[in-house]
Amino acid sequence: MSDPAPPVDPALVEHAVHIARDAGELTLHWFRRAGLAVEHKGDGSPVTEADLAAETFMRAELAAAYPDDAVIGEEHADAEGTSGRTWVIDPIDGTKAFTKSVPLYSNLLALVDEHGPAVGVINLPALGETVWAGRGLGAFHNGDRCRVSDHASLDGAYVCTSEFGYWPPADLAAVHAAPVQFRTWGDAYGYSLVATGRAEAMGCRPDCRHHRRGGWKLHRLHRRGRSQRMASRLRGRVQRPYPRRRAVHLELKAPDAAPSGPDRECPGSR
Fold it and tell me: Are 136 and 202 within one domain?
């Protein structure tokens, strides 16, 4: 068995949280603004001035603090790095919600290093919520430790999805026939609900990189090792820095034992 990856620097997590939150504050200047201009990219997905401004801001902050790190994002060209670390940005996940003044959009920031996913931040500026995690440090919701649900069966489980259009008909019928509460609490907001125990599972697109070997899946986040891991869900061409999750098909498993070791000071809570 390989050695576990080392914990990430808490200061790095704290800085990532601050960058995501500041980007979120920036997007609020355009949120619910009359006459918001919406353009469409080649794949048909929408993009606004807020998307572009938020990513530009996040890239500038990262370049100033970590000039040797690579950066990939949703709206701008990739920036090469030499450190072996890569920051991944989705400035607004849920742009369609944003353009319709629905407050469930988020700003996503993640860091991947030579050991894998290191930092993940989901910031929901219109809701005043931020969920983040650092490898080996645990997961947090607005500064308080968070954990996945202990609900261990389909009966009464809350299953989320962003939309139904990409569900294979047989899978959709199976979920409808199961004793679950099915909700369209989608995009990264759905993942934040799973990470904080407010929902049990999130349905993912079958074309995401994590699923290419196994077909359509329901996912829940599980505790692994000493930390409860969470990472940003990124769409489009951005590579998704998922932590390892246990994938189950129309079945929910009880989480592993709670993380061992003493509680640590919450990084990013200031």
Answer: no
